[in-house]
From TrEMBL:
Protein family membership: Belongs to the NAD-dependent glycerol-3-phosphate dehydrogenase family.
Protein name: Glycerol-3-phosphate dehydrogenase [NAD(P)+]
Domain Glycerol-3-phosphate dehydrogenase NAD-dependent N-terminal: start-end pairs: 3-157
HAMAP family in alphabetical order: NAD_Glyc3P_dehydrog
Catalytic reactions of this protein: sn-glycerol 3-phosphate + NADP(+) = dihydroxyacetone phosphate + NADPH + H(+); sn-glycerol 3-phosphate + NAD(+) = dihydroxyacetone phosphate + NADH + H(+)
SUPFAM superfamilies per UniProt: 6-phosphogluconate dehydrogenase C-terminal domain-like, NAD(P)-binding Rossmann-fold domains
Coiled-coil ranges from the UniProt annotation: none
Annotated active site: 188 (proton acceptor)
EC number per UniProt: 1.1.1.94
Signal peptide residues on this chain, from the entry's feature table: none
Pathway: Membrane lipid metabolism; glycerophospholipid metabolism
Protein residues bound to sn-glycerol 3-phosphate: 104, 133, 135, 188, 241, 251-253
Length: 334
C-alpha cells in the first residue's frame, strides 16, 4: 500500500520506519530543514535519535507531493496539529484516500475528540479511524514486538485496514469502539502524570497500583458517558496503554509527573522535555468534559490542581486520600 505519514515527530517517524519494510511510505514534515537533515543523516536526530531511517523511506516537506498517490493517510502530529493538518489537506481541493490519526488527546479549547475534529474538517473522507495502544516510538522503531488497536466506526474498514497494516512486529487489532479507544488513549496520559508524581515523591508501589486502578475507573466512567464501551477499557487502548504509560520510563507524561515531584515548574519541564506531553493540555479538557457530563474524576481534578492551580503534590495527595470513603463502584459509604 502507498502510505503518507503526516508528521515527523517520534511517533510519525517510528510508524514510517515500521511500515517502510512492507509498504511504499512517504514521511511528510512541515519543516523543510528537518527533511533535509533527515535525508542527509538518515536519522531523525531531533525527535528519534539513534534509529536509522531505511533507504526505502521517502521524505518530503511538500504536502501535495506526499498526498498525491497515497492510498492511506496517517496523521501523526500532536492533537494541536491535527486540525491545521486537516485544513491543509482540505485546501488541496482533491478527493482524499482513507485517513487514520495516531494523536492522543482532547483538542484544547473545544474539548473535542480527534474523530470529531476530523468530521468537522474532512466530512467527505471515504473512511477514517484511529490508531492507538501501548506503543513507545523508540521500541516500535527498533522493531520490538508491539500490538495496537485500529478503531473505526466503520467496522469493515477497521478490519480491512488492520489486516493490510498487520505485521509480525507491529500487530494490529480491529475495534469499532472509536470513542472508547480515543478516550483511553487521551486520559491515560493524565494518569501517567499522576503516577509520575506519586513515584517521584516515593509513595511506593501500593500507591502506584491504586492510582492505575482508580485511574482506569475514571477513564471507563468518562468513556461510557461519551458513548464508548467499558469493555474497550480492558483492551490495548485502555488498560494496555495505561499500564505502559504509567510505569514505562520512556513515557513523556510520566516524566512530567516525576519532574513536578522534584519541584520543577511546568514551563521548565516542557522545555527540558523537547517533545509533546499530551496529558498536560488534555487534563484541562478532560475535567471540563467530566464536569459537563457529571462524571466523578478526582485524579484528573488533582492533576489539574497541580498543573494549573499551583497546588503542591503533597496537598493534592492529602486531598485525594481524605475524600469520603466509597464503594469501588463509586457510591459514598456515608
Ligand atoms: N511518541 C510515542 O511513543 C507515541 C506518541 N503518540 C502520539 O502521537 C502524537 C505525536 O507524538 P510524537 O510524535 O511523539 O510527538 P513529538 O513531540 O515527538 O513530535 C511532534 C511532531 O509534530 C510536529 N508538529 C507539531 N504541530 C504540527 C503541525 N501543526 N503540523 C505538522 N506537524 C506538526 C512537530 O514538528 C514534531 O515533528 C501525540 O498525540 C502522541 O500522544 C502515540 C503513540 C506513541
Ligand atoms: O502513547 C504513548 C505510548 O503508547 C507514549 O506516551 P508518552 O506520550 O507519555 O510518551
Amino acid at each position: 500500500m502507498r502510505i503518507a505519514v503526516l508528521g515527523a515527530g517520534a511517533w510519525g517517524t517510528a510508524l514510517a520506519i515500521a511500515y517502510a519494510s512492507d509498504h511504499e511510505v512517504t514521511l511528510w514534515a512541515r519543516n523543510a530543514q528537518q527533511v533535509a537533515d533527515m535525508a542527509r543523516d538518515c536519522e531523525n536526530a531531533r525527535y528519534l535519535p539513534g534509529v536509522l531511517l531505511p533507504a526505502s523511506l521517502s521524505m518530503t516537506a511538500d504536502l501535495p507531493a506526499a498526498v498525491a498517490d497515497a492510498e492511506l493517510l496517517l496523521v501523526v502530529t500532536p492533537i494541536a496539529g491535527l486540525r491545521p493538518t486537516l485544513k491543509a489537506l482540505a485546501a488541496l481541493g482533491q478527493p482524499l484516500p482513507p485517513l487514520l490519526w495516531a494523536c492522543k488527546g482532547f483538542e484544547a479549547g473545544s474539548s473535542l475528540l480527534p474523530h470529531q475534529v476530523v468530521a468537522e474538517e474532512l466530512p467527505e473522507l471515504p473512511a477514517c479511524g484511529a490508531l492507538s495502544g501501548p506503543s513507545f516510538a523508540q521500541e516500535v522503531a527498533q522493531g520490538l514486538p508491539s500490538a495496537v488497536t485500529l478503531a473505526s466506526e466503520d467496522a469493515d474498514f477497521a478490519r480491512r485496514t488492520a489486516l493490510a497494516l498487520n505485521s509480525t512486529r507491529l500487530r494490529l487489532y480491529a475495534n469499532d469502539d472509536l470513542v472508547g479507544v480515543e478516550v483511553g488513549g487521551a486520559v491515560k496520559n493524565v494518569m501517567a502524570i499522576a503516577t509520575g508524581v506519586a513515584d517521584g515523591l516515593g509513595f511506593g508501589m501500593n500507591a502506584r497500583a491504586a492510582l492505575i486502578t482508580r485511574g482506569l475507573a475514571e477513564i471507563s466512567r468518562l468513556a461510557v458517558a461519551l458513548g464508548g464501551s467499558s469493555q474497550t477499557m480492558m483492551g490495548l487502548a485502555g488498560t494496555g496503554d495505561l499500564i505502559l504509560t504509567c510505569t514505562g520510563a520512556l513515557s513523556r507524561n510520566r516524566q512530567v509527573g516525576l519532574k513536578l515531584a522534584e519541584g520543577k515548574s511546568l514551563p521548565v519541564i516542557l522545555e527540558e522535555l523537547g517533545h509533546v506531553a499530551e496529558g498536560v493540555p488534555t487534563a484541562r479538557e478532560v475535567l471540563t468534559m467530566a464536569e459537563r457530563l457529571e462524571v466523578d474524576m478526582p485524579i484528573t481534578a488533582a492533576v489539574c490542581d497541580l498543573l494549573y492551580h499551583g497546588a503542591s503534590p503533597q496537598k493534592v495527595v492529602e486531598d485525594l486520600m481524605g475524600r469520603a470513603p466509597k464503594s469501588e463502584a463509586g457510591e459514598r459509604l456515608a
